[in-house]
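Progress against Task 2.4 (sequence-to-structure conversion) is shown through the following example record, which the project officer requested during the mid-term review.
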Amino acid sequence: MSALRRVSPDQLPRSQRSAVDRETRATALAIVDDVRSRGDEALREHAERLGDLEPGEPLVIERDELDRARQIVGREVDALLERTADRIRTFAEAQRAALRPIDVPVAGGRAGHTLEPVASAGCYAPGGRFPLPSSVLMTGVTARTAGVARVFVASPRPAAVTLAAAAVAGADRVLAVGGAQAVAALAYGTESVPPVDFVCGPGNRWVTAAKQIVFGDVGIDGLAGPSELVVVADGDADAAMVAADLLAQAEHDVDALPVLVTTSPAFADAVDDELTRQLTELGETCAAESLQRGFAVVARDLNEALEVADALAPEHLALHVPDPAAAARRVRHCGALFLGSNAAEALGDYGAGPNHVLPTGRGARFQGGLSVLDLLRVRTWLASENTDEASSLARDAARLARLEGLEAHARSAELRASVNEATAARMP
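Structure tokens generated for the chain above:
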């Protein structure tokens, strides 16, 4: 049997799952420091020790090799990568178009902001049990759409399809290394790897720990832990479809968290039956183990079910209810919403448009998924003129500076006021 354990609404796990534990952080810190101090030598040592590289294999794969990989994977796969990239790009372009420079009047002049992309980005894509070209596209295409000039992909043991995806995404080169050592190389540079300004993409706990360590020296998209899906369903939902979605999430890894929140005890039992049946059909998979981490909550009504989902603040939230749009308006915290039974979370994972790099561990309470917004910097500007209003602003600035004990600031502001007033006095 693959029954989800039952949890009542008042027994929900309230603590946030930590993205980085102390032991993992300590291990990652030692690797990051080593690569930062010894460069390529340390990068290669750790890569070979952890199975990323065989002795003598190149650390970096150049653009011409990426283009050749498109021929290796064949026309059908190459066209699939192109179609997926186009969908991701179209959505990212729409996000970019929603962000505009501003130019507004302020006291004594005008002010505004411009939107400037980071100059370079390192896009991480896991490559453990299986290649993940979808993550290459999600990160690389988003970076290019934001206007990033230099894009470096990092992925351990990159398969031909990973290299082809990097070419389609517009990457310049691929670092054939993973783990904390790859993040360190991207953040601080080595003889073979130029440093970048921003590191993004999903990864295991050592990758996540390394991103936490380098943050501040470079930007990062966030700290993602094991993947999560919460399905909210009433008694009329399709149990087979819900079970399929939960299993799709469960097969990510043994730490994935599949959760069902329903208003019907009978529906929870039906989903359990479907999980058992479908898991038998799937055969060998880690989904069985991760189902043991998951749970089912039976709520009194839809209101309580949505409150439970909001408290969990999951990475993915699927609403299998009669009016999913109305239900969505009552949920504040989730990384990505999937409205209705036809909007499978798997479609989001594989390139419908919105990004699949999302916050986990209740991180949706304070951040969203990867987007062009992460790769753009808001740069403000101020232009002031010689007017009475500008003088008034300067005098106020001087008063505030003295309240804070900063006399040089006060004098700097007062000098502008004096010049403005002297200029005004000379005017006929």
